[in-house]
Design brief:
Layout lengths: L8 E6 L2 E6 L2 H10 L5 H8 L6 H14 L6 H5 L6 H17 L12
Antiparallel strand pairs: 1-2
Helix pairs in contact: 1-3, 3-5
Length: 113
């Protein structure tokens, strides 16, 4: 499986299988609604703290899976496993946010699991 980084896609292994994730405009709108964010800048501000809860990671990964075309409810995402545990989920989220919003440098530090 390959990902088109120009479209903001990433590939990640969940439950031992490869998955494509992408935060499309619809997926971002879903996250805005979930966080009651007025706009994308508010989402970036929320995510830029680097402090994300497990629920945050489930929502972001779920939105990314749905954005890439998988019909996956957040409850199903919450039951999935990463080979490297919570650290693996944090890495997936960091990579997805970086692919969507740009380099993580000072504006978006990697989440602390």
């Amino acid at each position: 499986m390959s990902a088109n980084r120009r479209r903001g896609e990433i590939c990640a292994e969940l439950d031992g299988a490869p998955h494509r994730l992408c935060l499309t405009l619809g997926a971002l709108a879903e996250l805005e609604a979930a966080y009651a964010a007025d706009d994308l800048a508010a989402l970036v501000e929320r995510f830029s703290t680097g402090r994300l809860s497990a629920r945050d990671m489930i929502r972001i990964i779920g939105a990314g899976l749905r954005g890439a075309g998988e019909d996956m409810a957040d409850d199903a995402v919450g039951a999935m496993q990463s080979a490297t545990g919570a650290t693996g989920f944090a890495a997936i989220v960091a990579e997805l946010l970086t692919a969507t919003f740009g380099a993580a440098s000072k504006d978006m530090p990697a989440p602390n699991p």
